[in-house]
Request: fold
Amino acid sequence: MRQSRIIQLAGLGFTIAYAAFIVWIYATEPRTFKEVTTSAEVAAGTYEIDQEKFNSGLNFFRREQFRAARVEWQQADPAQRDARTQFYIAYSFYREGWGRLYFDQELFKQGVEAVNRAIALSSAGTLTIDDPDLHMHTAAELKAELEQGLERNWSDVNPLKVLRTRK
Amino acid sequence: MPATNRSRNRALLDFVVLPFIFLTVALLGGLRIGAENGTFIFIAPPVVTLLLATLLMLLLIRGGLLRLHDWVSSDFPPLTNVAHIWMFITMFFASAQAFNSVLPERGLLHWLFSFFFLWTLWNNQFSSFDARRLLRSLTVLFGTAFVLKHMLLASLYSPEGGWLKRVAGTLLQGIALGTLDVPTFAAVTGYIAFFTLALYVAGLTLLAFAVNGETTVISEPMAHNHQQLSAAEPLAVREAILDDSRD
Reply:
C-alpha cells in the first residue's frame, strides 16, 4: 500500500514535470536541438552570450562592416536575451541605414525592433552603454533617433539636411 | 505476494507508464520536420481536434475502455483520484494530438478529413461496442488516416515527385493538382507520425489489459468460491441473483 502511494506520488511528479516540458516546447517552438538547449539555459537562468563572437562582431562594427557584425552578434546571442548585444545590433541597423539624403526605412524598422528588445531586456530600466566609439549611449536615445528617421515630414525636403552628421 | 506485485505493477502502469506514453504522444503528435532545412515545426492541436478527442473519450467510456466510476470515486484516497484524473487528462491530449498527426495542416483537405473523423465518431456513439472491438475500430481509423495523409498525399505533393504524383500525372494529364494547398514536410515526419500512432494504440491496449485484469481479479475468486459449493447450492445462488435482479 505504502509502495503504491510512493509510485503514485513519484509518477504524478514526474509526469507533471514532463507535461510542463511539453507545454514549454510548444510555447517556445525551438527549431533545432541547439535551440532547445539555448531555451533551456534561458529558462534556467544560466544563459550567457558567446563573448568571443561578441568581440568579433564589435571589430566588424568598428570597421563599418555592419552586416558581418550582425551575423557575429546573432551567433553570440542566439536567444536574443542579452540587452547589450541587442543594443549593438540596433546601432548597426542605424549606422547602415543612415544616409545623408535619405534613411533606409527597412533597416531602421529592424533597428527599432532590436532596440525595443534591448529595452525590454534591460533589468535596470535605462540601458546605458559606455563605449567611446558611440555617440548615443542609451537605448532611449537610439530608439528616438531611429523613430525620427522613420517619420515623414516637411523637414525631409530641407536641403540643409545634407549637413547633418551620423551619430 | 503475487497480489502485492499485482498492485505494484498496476500502480506503475496507471501512474507512470500510461501517463508517460500519452504525454509522449501529445509531444510528438504536433511535431513535423521541415522539408527544406530539416528544422522542427511544432503545430499546436487545432480546435477541431479537441472536439474529436472529446467524442473519442465519450466513445472510450461507452466501449468500456474507460470506467470512470471504477477509477474516480469518493471511496478512494484523494491522491488516487487526482492521479486517475491526471491520467484521463493526458489521454485526452494524446487523443487530440493523435488526430493532429493525421490531419492535413490546412486547406480543403484539413476540413474534409475533420468532417470524416467527426462523422465516424458521431456514428460510433450510437453503435454497440466492447473494448476489444473499439480498439480494433480505432486502429483501423487511425491507420487509414495515416495511409491517406502520410503515404498518398505526401507522395502526391512531394517536391521530388513521388510515385503517386507520377501515376496521377500520367492519368490526369492537364488537370491541376495544386489547388488543395497541402504543406510538404520531410519524409521523417511520416515515421514520427507512425511511431506516435503506434504508441497511442499501445497505450490504449495497455489500458484495455488493465481493465480486463481488473475484471479477472474480481471474477477469479468468485469462480473459485462457486466451484466449492455443494450440488444444491449453485441453484440457490442463482435464485438469489435472479431475485436481486428482479428487485
About this structure: The radius of gyration of chain A is 22 Å. Chain A has a mean pLDDT of 88. Chain A touches chain B through 22 residues (CB under 8 Å).
